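Exercise 3.2. Students should predict the tertiary structure of the chain below and write it as structure tokens, then compare their answer with the key that follows.

Predict this chain's 3D structure.
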Amino acid sequence: MQKLRTRSKSLLCWTLFTQQKAQQVNQLLKNTGLKTVCQEASCPNIGECFNSGTATFMIMGTLCTRHCAFCDVEQGKPKPLDLAEPQKISEAVKILHLKYVVLTSVDP
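Answer key:
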């Protein structure tokens, strides 16, 4: 019985830690206006990436001119580029101590 309690306690601590990491990522993205493909495409595994210290930043806007049936990214005419976006991404990577960063863009 003791093993079960210890295991449950460590699982609970891990869950709380990972939720805090995901909340930190979400808050930073909200504050900087940065977007990830995870958010824009409604990825069901978003927590897994954020919790593991990985992010796939979506650059050059969030509107795509393509109409892919499998993708949940909003379609439309692209808006002007955010010239501060490279600096924002660089700062986010430093703040979050990300191990891996992937950049992806919509089809303008």
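Discussion points: The radius of gyration is 17 Å. Residues 2-105 form one domain.
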